[in-house]
Please model this.
Amino acid sequence: MSRKTANAGDAAVLAAMPSAMTTPAQLERLGEHLRKLRLFKSGERLEAMLQHAAAHELPYAEFLDQVLGEEVAAKTSKNIAMRTAMARLPFTKPLETFDFGYQPSIDRKQVLALASCHFIEHGDNVIVLGPPGVGKTHLAVSLGLKAIEAGYRVLFTTASNLIAVLTKAHAEGRLDEKLKVYTTPRLLIIDEIGYLPIDRQGANLFFQLISRRYERGPMILTSNQSFAAWGDVFGDRVIATAILDRLLHHAVTLNIRGNSYRLKEKIKAGLVRSLEDNGSQPGGEI
Model:
């Protein structure tokens, strides 16, 4: 064997030695270090990663990159799961499952641009209008999930539940405390505006929340009513105008004109006429 070949072989052996010769005491000590650093994923997979490094003769930097990469991935996944639970979403449907082909009125490129979450950075609101069943909540939740993945704290609520909570807090003298619950999250999603009537007190409380978040925290709102009908929704055209003035100052509006997903199979079977067939226009137009 030539000296050059021998040297190359010695170098390979030396590269693998730290992993191949790891003793039980070293494993225990390494595991303790990882627990103290709260690197739990690395602790679980330490022995397997050491064996892999030895078998493939990984350079030290590559081995360290693998260890830290797995730890970051595990912590990121855990944080996303925690923020998703805190968001109180009614379901978790990713944007990739939205059927853009069934709702051609939606600009797919515009929605994908919103999925980048730049609207949150810029403080813009997103308002989704359209009749029941066209996917407004699905879009709102999907964009909320994108925000969670991007590291933002998100909170979901329906308009009726929001107003019920604020009304109760107002009666108990805890309104400021409860308003903070809805102003703290970076992104607030308010679903189903217009499905149930809102009394004057509820309209005032809703206005207070919108005012507190104005130019501070972006929102996603969905409604089955056109903006022109919001005066009836809130029972007061002056309050409705003030709310819209703040919401639309920095906003992107998605106006869905299409058929209900819930009636998709019935329309296909000819049991229900589609909106295109009967020439009617859905609610939610500007």
